[in-house]
Amino acid sequence: VQLQASGGGLVQAGGSLRLSCATSRSISGAIDMGWYRQAPGKQRDMVAIITSGRTTIYADSVKGRFTISKDFAKNTLNLEMNSLNPEDTGAYYCNAKFALRGPSYWGQGTLVTVSS
């Protein structure tokens, strides 16, 4: 399974970006899909997760600003990011799991840089 993340870029504080993650496998079969962020010199942390039942989970730091969603027509996982601040800077990775005991797949990451 291949995941391809896109949509990153340079944005000023207060701005918005929309990330997308295209997969080579139907997202309708995914158990969990999510976005993770890795800031320079730090570990990779969960940003948002959406389950097969469309339950969403967000990191406290992004609640109310970010929205994770699935576009079944385009077969993509999306992350709408609003009110961005410099602490949101990092490489954003999409993740997908298609079986309870199966592997976890990662995209290559897309870089988001928020300037103050």
Topology of this protein?
Layout: E1 3-6, E2 9-12, E3 17-23, E4 32-38, E5 44-51, E6 56-58, E7 66-71, E8 76-81, E9 90-97, E10 104-106, E11 110-115
Parallel strand pairs: 2-11
Antiparallel strand pairs: 1-3, 3-8, 4-5, 4-9, 5-6, 7-8, 9-10, 9-11
Write up what this structure looks like.
With 116 residues, the chain is mainly β. Helix content is 0%, strand content 53%. A hairpin with a 6-residue loop joins strand 9 and strand 10. The strands form two sheets. Strands 2, 4, 5, 6, 9, 10 and 11 form a seven-stranded mixed sheet that branches. A four-stranded antiparallel sheet has the order 1-3-8-7, with no helix packed on it.
Per DSSP, the total helix count is 0
Tell me about the largest β-sheet.
7 strands, mixed
List low-confidence stretches.
none
Radius of gyration, rounded? 13 Å
Strand content: over 45%
By DSSP, the count of extended strands is: 11
Which structural class matches the secondary elements? mainly beta
Q: What value does the average pLDDT take?
A: 96
How far apart the termini lie comes to: 37 Å
Helix/strand order: EEEEEEEEEEE
How would the global form be characterised?
Answer: globular
Instruction: Bin the helical content.
Output: under 10%
